[in-house]
TrEMBL record:
Official protein name in the record: Transmembrane protein
InterPro entries: DUF6164
Keywords: Membrane, Transmembrane, Transmembrane helix
Domain of life: Bacteria
Transmembrane segments: 97-118
Pfam family of the protein (one): DUF6164
Length: 121
């Protein structure tokens, strides 16, 4: 029976390609399921053989640890260079989007707090 190795929600194309290459290099058979058209499932990378799961999980742990170090270093470098996206840079680039998101957050918070405010009075 197949085992899910990686849910593809919020997985970038570079990470997906790295994981596929890693599995291929170590001779681990895998396949990909595509995301559903209705957004219920995001797809995933599955192992064909159950016996490959411990080895694949160990490889993924090593890969993710190395990727974490690399990505944090890239982010720190971007912050030092001033090229990292921050709230201020996003607001300057897309002010309408930022204002709409903040308004949406305020509306959601108001809807959540409304029953408590009504019960209090």
């Amino acid at each position: 029976m197949a085992k899910l190795l990686l849910n593809l929600r919020n997985v970038g194309n570079d990470e997906y390609a790295d994981v596929c290459t890693l599995l291929d290099q170590h001779g681990i058979a895998w396949y990909r399921t595509e995301p559903s058209p209705w957004g219920i499932s995001n797809g995933g990378l599955w192992l064909r053989e159950d016996t490959d799961q411990p080895r694949a999980k160990a490889l993924m742990a090593e890969y993710q640890a190395a990727r974490g170090v690399r990505v944090r270093a890239e982010r720190e470098q971007a912050l030092r260079d001033g090229t990292a996206e921050t709230f201020g840079s996003l607001f300057r680039r897309r002010p309408g989007f930022v204002v709409l998101v903040l308004l949406g957050m305020a509306v959601a918070a108001a809807l959540v707090l409304l029953p408590f405010m009504l019960l209090r009075g």
